[in-house]
Amino acid sequence: VAGMSIVFVLCAALSKPSGHDVLLGLVWPRVPEGSLTSILSLIGTIIVTYNLFLQANMEAEKSAAQRQIFKIEAETLQQQILASRQSTAASMLLGGIINVGILITAAYAFPRDEAPESIAKMASALE
What we know:
Layout: H1 2-14, H2 19-27, H3 36-46, H4 49-70, H5 74-109, H6 119-125
Helix pairs in contact: 1-5, 4-5
């Protein structure tokens, strides 16, 4: 996963996107006619919310087990909760950076008027 992440961010940087276009797209995204289903599909696959719930549940179970085993005080528990929140925030930030890299790479590899019609054409565009 780390290798793929680095490749996408590197590809996004090598495509030399216009900073203005990237910021404009982040602040004021455009939805071309007939693309709502594709956009919702991308959002659903990129932002996998159940991972957040899985991580939160794992952290809660780990904290509860540690409290019982090691007789952890309430103050230490608050520190663990803060650390868990920081970990989740860092994961979300890193995931956001990777997703922006993927979207920038796709936007510059496949301009709107030149979208590939098949997987083979898509593969050749990425070479």
